[in-house]
Amino acid sequence: MSQQQMEMTRSKLRRLLVVAGVVLALDQATKILILNYFPLYHTVSVFPGFFNLTHIHNPGGAFGVLSGSPSLARHVFFLLASSAALVVVLFLYFKTPGRYRLLSAGLALIFGGALGNLTDRIRLGKVVDFLDFYIRSFHWPAFNIADSAISIGMVVFVYHLLMGNLPE
Measured between alpha carbons, how far is residue 16 from residues 22, 25, 47, 93, 136 in Å? Predict the structure, then answer.
């Protein structure tokens, strides 16, 4: 590997660590605040008719998928799935050429979000959610900062996919 390639790899790694690190830090800090200052299932209306802070735990995946499965099997499944996803995202990130900065940023957001939720699963056996958006009786499933980063990163990835703007 040439000196220039090594420097580009180091630069990409620094960008990944900054973006994913900020996501992870914000995610874990907000979850610690919720865990320490909000009793489980407690809700505070922030913008009535639109947004609450609500402390809940999700032992399953997105939208509570598999939350009713046996605890040990579910826990092992999500630890393995999250770890595999991190490896895939890391591979895609480093295979993405430097000129695809938006795609790289999206992948870094996904990586940081996946790390945040994996940290919860390792530490607590479930994910802490607290952002509750709704209109009248329609509630979007509660989520957290990590979920937001994953969603934004996926929008960027899908945009590149649909526009045929993925690297070769």
Answer: 10, 14, 34, 8, 39
Q: Using pLDDT thresholds of 50, 70 and 90, give the confidence band for residue 9.
A: confident
Per-residue model confidence (pLDDT) at position 74: 72
Which one from 27, 120, 129, 132 is the annotated catalytic residue?
129
Of 27, 120, 132, 147, which is the active-site residue?
Answer: 147
Tokens of 11: 């630069």
> Does residue 61 carry a pLDDT above 80?
no
- 0.70 exceeded by pTM: yes
pLDDT of residue 75: 76
Q: Is residue 32, in this structure, part of any structural domain at all?
A: yes
| Amino acid 64: pLDDT | 56
> Rounded CA gap, 86 and 167, in Å?
19
Instruction: Give how many domains the chain has, as a whole number.
Output: 1
Domain that holds residue 139: 3-162
Token representation of residue 130: 């607290």
* 100 lies in some domain: yes
**129 flagged as catalytic:** yes
167 within a domain of the structure (yes/no) = no
Say if 168 falls within a structural domain.
no
